[in-house]
Amino acid sequence: MIEFSHLVKRHGSRAVVNDISFTAQPGRVTGFLGPNGAGKSSTLRILLSLDRASSGSALVNGVTYRSIRNPLLTVGSMLDGPGANRGRTAKAHLTWVAQSNGIPLSRISEVLAMTGLSGAARTRISGFSLGMGQRLGIAAALLGDPEILVLDEPTNGLDPDGIRWIRRFLRSLAADGKTVLVSSHLMGEMEETADDFIVIAQGSIVAQGTGDAVRGAHRTLEDAFFALTEGQASYRSGDLTGGEHA
Ligand SMILES: Nc1ncnc2c1ncn2[C@@H]1O[C@H](COP(=O)(O)OP(=O)(O)OP(=O)(O)O)[C@@H](O)[C@H]1O
């Protein structure tokens, strides 16, 4: 189980994560949704001990990620795509991850098969499509057969086939009892994937619960999402397009 409790992250005087509390449960896909700049990545980075909270906590099975001895055996994650050296083959990348985390090399062919990449094992990552790269990132996350999976925007830039594959795959992992926490800025992509929804805007939760609870009186979850988050995208200075904080 993943548990966020009153999590706050400040940059200077600005809270980019502002009192976030929710849990992601085993056997369920939890969709973590919000427009650009809402604070999704900041929250997940703290969960994975890549950044420190200003206050509050983000725990995995009751402890911080950094305190877990061999974290890949408990939590698999993908932030910012596969994070692989593009000159390596898929197999070489997975071998490197497995060896540096004490994972048996026999697991590599298993995760390649699970993600449909067996035929691309010896292909250099520079020759991968975006969708293959996302599959490789998920394969690496699954190497340690973790009970918890954390994925930041895994469908970003994928075509409908790739999105459908990820949707089915995440559902099958949850059906196996795993805790799946997945972020997206598109409710349409998560509508049929997630069991529970956490919607954030400008660092704060604006709705949470099952699809029915978040949909409320709106016709679709996507309508609810836009009503809850409209005009609340926030962009770093230097980005081309802007919301009200550009
Ligand atoms: N190191 C930093 N210093 C200052 N502000 C930051 C820093 N990192 C992130 N932010 C700000 O925090 C806010 C939340 O960013 P974050 O990347 O968590 O959002 P997000 O929901 O993941 O958005 P996206 O979908 O665009 O990735 C943004 O306004 C961003 O500009």
UniProtKB/TrEMBL annotation:
The lineage of its organism: Bacteria, Bacillati, Actinomycetota, Actinomycetes, Micrococcales. PROSITE patterns: ABC_TRANSPORTER_2. GO terms for molecular function: ATP binding. It comes from the Bacteria. Residues 2-227 form the ABC transporter domain. This is ATP-binding cassette domain-containing protein. The keyword Nucleotide-binding applies. Keywords: ATP-binding, Nucleotide-binding, Transport. Gene3D superfamilies: P-loop containing nucleotide triphosphate hydrolases. Belongs to the ABC transporter superfamily.
